[in-house]
Amino acid sequence: MIEFELNGKSVSVDCGPTDRLLDVLRRDFGLTGPKEGCGEGECGACSVIVDGKLQSSCIAPMGNVRGKSVLTIEGLRETERFAVLDSCFAEAGAVQCGFCTPGMMLAAEALLSKNPRPSSDDVRVAISGNICRCTGYSMIVEAILNAAEKGKGLW
Fold first, then answer.
1. Which of residues 52, 75, 98 is at a domain's end?
2. Which DSSP state fits 61?
3. 105 and 82 in contact (C-beta within 8 Å)?
4. CATH number of the domain encompassing residue 38
5. What is the pLDDT of residue 133?
6. Does 36 share its domain with 101?
7. What is the CATH number of the domain that holds 87?
8. Are both 63 and 92 inside the same structural domain?
9. Alpha-carbon dihedral of residues 91, 92, 94, 98, nearest 10 degrees?
10. How many domains does the chain have?
11. Residue 17: is it exposed, middle or buried by C-beta count within 10 angstroms (0-12/13-18/19+)?
12. How far apart are CA 17 and CA 98, in angstroms?
């Protein structure tokens, strides 16, 4: 049994310590925001935030999240900060197919939580582990910078 905090709630799951966090989130908790992309931790489609740090859930063994706090896009969606990110992504045209969007938004959340006034370069570094094949990074960078401006005091 592995116990951890998931989206602000204490949970426990009967799984092995080497089971992937991605699989447990999807299978045991029905959370489909994190997606299998590359399966190697390089595309960002499976991104979650573990204890404040962006992490690829496809390469995170469950033993490493024991006692930690995990935030998925479903948990972020319940916050005022998500509402700001969501509107800024829409306004900037930073969403097309949507496959990468949850990971991009979590990358933005992780960045803005540590640096609420990022530069364009800061944003580019923060999203560098997240691949987008549809939208184009300029619009995503614009969305995150706009969110930083509109969300003053939230992060």
1. 75
2. B
3. yes
4. 3.10.20.30
5. 83
6. no
7. 1.10.150.120
8. no
9. 10
10. 2
11. exposed
12. 31
The residues facing 4 across adjacent strands are 11
Residues 44 and 87 in one domain: no
- Boundary (domain end) residue, out of 44, 75, 106: 75
Domain membership of residue 92 as a residue range: 79-150
Tens-level pLDDT at each residue, the chain (155 residues): 999 999 999 999 999 999 999 999 999 999 999 999 999 999 999 999 999 999 999 999 999 999 999 999 999 999 999 999 999 999 999 988 888 899 999 999 999 999 999 999 999 999 998 888 887 799 999 999 999 999 999 99
| Residue 88 structure tokens | 């800024």
**83-87: long-range pairs with CB below 8 Å, 24+:** 84/147, 84/150, 84/151, 84/154, 85/109, 85/143, 85/144, 85/147, 85/151, 87/150
What SS3 class is residue 94?
coil
The whole-number pLDDT of residue 40 equals: 92
Pairing of strands 2-6, 9-13: antiparallel
Handedness of CA 67, 70, 75, 81 (dihedral sign): positive
Contact present, 143 and 109 (Cβ < 8 Å):
no
* Residue 155 included in any domain: no
Residues 26 and 67 in one domain: yes
